[in-house]
Amino acid sequence: MVKYQRKKAMADEEDDEGGAGELRSPGNYFYAPTATRLRSNPKFFLMVFLLASCTLLLLPSMLLLLLYDQKEGVASAANTMLCSSLSNGNICCDRSSVRSDICIMKGDIRTQPGSSSITMYGAAAGDAAGAAAVRREKIKPYTRKWEDSVMKTIDELDLVVRTDLAAAAGHRCDVRHDVPAVFFSTGGYTGNLYHEFNDGILPLYITSNRMNKKVVFVILEYHNWWVTKYGDVLSELSDFPAIDFSGDNRTHCFPEAVFGLRIHDELTVDPSLMGNNESIRDFRGLLDRAYRPRIRGLIEDEEREARSMARPNFDGSKITPRPVQGPARPKLTIMSRNGSRAIANEDLLVKMATGLGFRVEVLRPERTTELAKIYRALNSTDVMVGVHGAAMTHFLFMRALSVFIQVVPLGTEWAAETYYGGPARKFGLKYMGYKIIPKESSLYDQYDKNDPILRDPHSVSSRGWEFTKKIYLDDQTINLNLKRFKKRLIRAYDYSRRREST
Question: Mind listing the domains of the chain with CATH numbers?
Answer without folding.
Answer: 90-263 (no CATH), 331-501 (3.40.50)
